[in-house]
Write a structure and sequence with these properties.
The chain has 14 helices and 17 strands. It is an alpha/beta fold.
Amino acid sequence: MGRRLLPRTASCRSFNGEFTVKPVKVGICGLGTVGGGTFNVLQRNAEEIARRAGRGIEVAQIAMRSPNPNCQITGTPITADVFEVATNPEIDIVIELIGGYTIARELVLKAIDNGKHVVTANKALIAVHGNEIFAKAREKGVIVAFEAAVAGGIPVIKAIREGLSANRINWVAGIINGTGNFILTEMREKGRAFPDVLAEAQALGYAEADPTFDVEGIDAAHKLTILASIAFGIPLQFDKAYTEGITQLTTADVNYAEALGYRIKHLGVARSTANGIELRVHPTLIPADRLIANVNGVMNAVMVNGDAAGSTLFYGAGAGMEPTASSVVADLVDVVRAMTSDPENRVPHLAFQPDSLSAHPILPIEACESAYYLRIQAKDHPGVLAQVASILSERGINIESIMQKEVEEQDGLVPMILLTHRVLEQRMNDAITALEALQDVVGNVVRIRVEQLN
């Protein structure tokens, strides 16, 4: 019998148990919080990672603008030019951790053009340019891995794409922005106002100097766009996601929700319906006894409901140096394992085969269905509640419960809080317009959507 030759990139060991094949060489672009954590995890757990991957993984080049004091990078080649990493013939895998849309997109496409696999933690890049990037990767036969782009250290992309591949996914709902969750937790637990908690979140480093992406739901919408594509097999369509922030929430609404047995969370919801896909991020009342309603502080959680598995909950750190690095390195291990496989037999980027993606449309928010919390400030006159009930009834909106508070001493108004059954958003929009036109209703009606998640 002749000798069986191992493939060039196959794993083999010498008699002392050490790996004898050439290690995979990676280039890290960006040595900030996540880049530094990735470098340190790769160094600290090198042996364990090699045992899992079947080959060693070596950081062969780093592109950075300034040193990271938490990283001992002595002996590793350094450059200030990220494109040098993308064109370096020694590099097998490029790790993109610079963030943003523009340079990151150019870097990733350049790396792919040069036949390199890519690992990224950039949710904005994938949500906005993922369709283009994945098409180019398929053309070149390389892998683009992006587990760290959603929910930090929680392996939710792998769970939906692979672990739940037997299921028809019904819906996905997630607390996928730690900054917003920290703010709402502080408002509920300590009765603090939004501006006060936001200032603390910025001081603690949870929120940027410009917190728009976090508090207006844009960051969560990037992540939800990715989750929806993987769950339902649709192209990435961030531009069609509905986003609503938490800047207008008051401690009064947080307290009223609590009295009704609910918690307010800044929730991302993607649901498959017969008419299309709901893709929306907004403040949401969730029953207080749901596990996801009790996810507090900067933690993240994602619920996935499938027809076979039922509901599953994924919980953990949604950001941070080493939690996110954990997902980056897990992607590296997956890429190393798959490098020698036939590109046609790899796990598809968006879970479904590229030629099998669905054209099921993303629904406008007016066509989405939800239950609602309404807070109405009314003058203390008889018959107001009857007028409110009549307006809702005329539009086919059923009231589940009503809570009417005492007259407020400051302005002499009576807060009326209503919970409704599920109804199309357009009907609720029409009802709110009519409610606000009543002479005895003062100011805008506060509307917060309600999800049971059961």
